[in-house]
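Dear Dr. K.,

Following up on our conversation at the group meeting, I've run the structure prediction for Ion transport domain-containing protein from Hyphococcus luteus. I'm pasting the input sequence below exactly as I used it, so you can double-check it against your construct before we proceed with anything downstream. Let me know if the numbering doesn't match what you have in your notebook.
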Amino acid sequence: MTDEQKTALQRFIESDAFQGVVLGLIIINAVILGADTFSGVRDGAGPWLMAVDRGIIYAFVVEIGLRIIAWRAAYFKNGWNVFDFLIVLVSVGAATSGLGALRAFRVLRVLRVITVIPRMRVVVSALLDSIPGIASVGVVLALIVYVFAVIAANLYGPAHPDLFGDVFQAMYTLFQVMTLEGWPDIASQVSETHSRSWVFFLTFVLIATFTMLNLFVAIVVRVVEEDSEPVVDEVMEGQAEIRKEISALRAEIEGLAKRLPPAS
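The predicted structure tokens came back this morning:
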């Protein structure tokens, strides 16, 4: 394959039409995998669904093959390409295996939509980049829960051993409170024996839920904004180049208009 042919193949793969076909196959495959979970659909159209599913797998294999031919070794230097390749590889193994557990991994093909849509790649990259910050907040949150659990086990453990019998039971109960899942019932049960326990629960909810959990959201939002800046800069640069080209075309048109003989 010559460099000219290779460049043409790369342009074809990166074209909107090609990407649209790949995205359409992913969506169709997702619908088929979901429909296959209904026994009525599986019994009535199972062979047809399986045939279409196999066809989509072969199409994905051809697509990956074209990408490898176009970029060769450079294809595997991109982390998203490696992710795409592994998903297709696992899908082929799951489709050709007779084991039901492995066939369940066919649904991983739906994750390919992340590699097709650039904005989704930005979101996933932001989530990965935010892991260090989330881990730091998680450690602080675990310490807060542990401190409150020790306090609760000493204050309310003797009267409510099912909720605060020991520090681990207390941490589990406080985790339920932190998620706001049935925490009024827990607080009401404790208030029957400790009338001022509302102070403890209100303080914990304000610190653990409304403050710490919002920090998780703030970290992810900040990282998304940082990761989106290169994309925004690229769009702005593209718009600036388009404006320059329009200005140049306008100047050429004006120059040509001046060279035209005046109308008689």
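Two things stood out to me. The chain has a mean pLDDT of 81. The CA atoms of residues 201 and 242 lie 59 Å apart.

Best regards,
J.T.
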